[in-house]
From TrEMBL:
It comes from Prosthecomicrobium pneumaticum. One of its GO terms (biological process) is DNA topological change. Its EC number is 5.6.2.1. SUPFAM superfamilies: DNA breaking-rejoining enzymes, DNA topoisomerase I domain. This is DNA topoisomerase. Residues 35-83 form the DNA topoisomerase IB N-terminal domain. Residues 95-311 form the DNA topoisomerase I catalytic core eukaryotic-type domain.
Amino acid sequence: MRADHPVPAGGGALPAVAYVSDALPGIRRRRVGRGFAYYDAEGRLIRDAAEIRRIRALAIPPAWTEVWICPSADGHIQATGRDARGRKQYRYHARFRESRDSNKYAHILDFAAALPALRARVKTAMSARGLGRDKVIATVVHLLDTTLVRVGNRDYARANKSFGLTTLRSRHVAVEGSTLRFDFKGKSGKIWRLKLWDRRVANIVRACQDLPGQDLFRYLDEEGAPHSVTSGDVNAWLREATGAEITAKDFRTWAGTVLACMAFAELSAEAEHKPTRKNLARAIAAVAAKLGNTPAICRKCYVHPEVMEAYLGGTPPFTLEAIAAAVDGDLPPEEAAALAFLKKRLRRTATSRRAAA
């Protein structure tokens, strides 16, 4: 099978995987007794033991339907299928996952660098009169930045009755004076109960609640017609405001990394502290609780791996004293310290790789 083109695997240290599509002919499975038999694109039963081991190692859930399996061991997508809810799911090649994660964390430095100007843009937009599109979307972005709540997805809200910022209903927020109380079920059933004191946000949310319709965040177009804000609106606004491929999820990835740096700094300040995996797990659990994730997902998706590697290597990302000494007029001290650490650490890692090449 020929792939369209190779996909580089992070940093050039690993061989490339091949870009594939499940629109191409692939391997299909058929249930046989308590297991499955596998058939190639020509409908022939696959008997090769090594190929069957590769397929089984993908751990494709038995409940998946419309299963497609890549006939090449080097395809960046190894399998696709539909889960019990009819949602399309993927199994990716391990090298592709590593490359994707590496690129994601490299991108987070660009996000941190863009934050000061983005926050200034948000502040200006929120100060505008009325309930225009720019103002209401900027308010959602402000809440992404300050509450760490997910942006939300309409399909997910309909299927799971769980909510994010763009899918909140007016009933999910109570406003009294300058106080806002959020109470809703988020992804994976997590109950979010947040209390904020912010007169500017309270006034905007109260005005949104006065508009017709159940959705909380709605804006008025030039003709005075109301429209609900979607996650697509938010991501498009972020790209336009920054000129970069920034998305709503970047707020949680950056926050997870900064919170982990803080947690490691606090642990390192304890008497007789040792950088053990048990203590790392303690710190990640604390960060996960703030993000509303499981520790496993938090560690895999929301904390830069260099932060954890530095801690286990006996060098915490920074100390509490370093936070107090951090000087960056555009970022809060903890964010400035985290960004400075990552830049220094990544430069050192890049130098080591060049020396080893």
